[in-house]
Write a structure and sequence with these properties.
heterodimer, A: 6-stranded antiparallel beta sheet, 7 helices, globular, disordered C terminus, B: mainly alpha
């Protein structure tokens, strides 16, 4: 009897360990294939910058140019940037369930929500999450959905919002003061 | 018998002048036959073959060098195109990210209304 209880305890512990390991937050989100939306969308932005492409892009940034130098500084510690952004002429012409499925991936431990915006009037949802491990930022996720557009951004690596802030006004990037509002 | 033989021999060996025009005919025949100088034929084909191979070798080497240069040039151009495209995508990605961060910032800063579910 005591042996079976002991066995049950071990099995339960293993099951808990396996489930928690399976739920460990992955900095790289599994993005659905939105290729079919490209033709339907008025504007489509699909960017996949893996570490190799990021290194290649960095080679073409001029360190003597202040703007390029700032971008290069933001890139320090970043291992990948993945952007999916689509704008449509009609309301909800995109698969909302696919976007929600990406939101669901951010529910596992490790991901911390920095900003959540819900507007019933404009039917807008904006979520900004950061993956923190051992007090270090490992990834950033941003999901913004509106009736006629949605954007998913996944930045893998240590994202420094201060450095991102320094890009304000450059390359058409607007000014940010998010840290003041946290 | 012996004297008769000697007389016959002397008669046969007596100096005789050539018929008239003999020298002219000999010279004329010599002119007709073109005399080709004989050269050593053993080495000539080998030298020609070596010369031909030398030219071929140089042409082949030049072709290889040109091909390598052309391939390098194409690779450099492709790499530059890909690098510039990656740079463009990087800046576009940062632009989109900042734009959406700004949207969140605006929403956070906006005075709360009854329509907003919360921040």
């Amino acid at each position: 009897m005591s042996k079976s209880i002991h066995l049950c305890t071990v099995v339960a512990f293993l099951a808990y360990w396996l489930s928690s390991a399976a739920q460990a937050a992955d900095p790289l989100l599994k993005l659905p294939n939105f290729d079919g939306l490209t033709e339907k969308a008025e504007k489509a932005v699909t960017i996949t910058l893996d570490p190799v492409l990021l290194r290649l892009a960095a080679r073409f940034l001029d360190p003597t140019d202040p703007e390029d130098a700032a971008v290069k500084e933001v890139m320090q510690g970043i291992g990948g940037i993945y952007v999916r952004s689509f704008t449509f002429a009609e309301d909800f012409a995109y698969p909302v369930a696919d976007v929600e499925a990406v939101r669901k991936q951010l529910g596992v431990p490790g991901w911390h929500r920095l900003v959540e915006v819900r507007s019933r009037k404009e039917q807008t949802k904006v979520d900004i999450y950061m993956l923190v491990e051992k007090e270090q930022a490992k990834a950033l996720a941003l999901i913004a959905s509106e009736p006629r557009e949605f954007t998913i951004v996944n930045i893998v690596g240590s994202v420094d919002l201060d450095k991102l802030h320094r890009l304000e006004g450059q390359f058409g990037i607007p000014k940010l003061e998010i840290e003041n509002k946290k | 018998m012996t004297e008769e033989f000697e007389r016959g021999l002397r008669g046969a060996l007596r100096p005789v002048d050539p018929p008239s025009g003999f020298a002219d005919r000999v010279l004329e025949r010599l002119d007709r036959q073109s005399v080709v100088p004989v050269e050593p034929r053993v080495w000539r084909p080998r030298v020609r073959a070596l010369q031909r191979h030398w030219y071929s070798g140089v042409a082949l080497a030049a072709s290889v060098v040109l091909a390598v240069v052309a391939v390098n040039q194409l690779q450099d151009e492709r790499s530059e195109r890909e690098g510039l495209e990656a740079r463009r995508q990087l800046i576009e990605a940062l632009r989109v990210t900042s734009e959406k961060l700004d949207l969140a910032y605006e929403a956070v800063n906006r005075p709360p209304s009854t329509d907003d579910a919360g921040v």
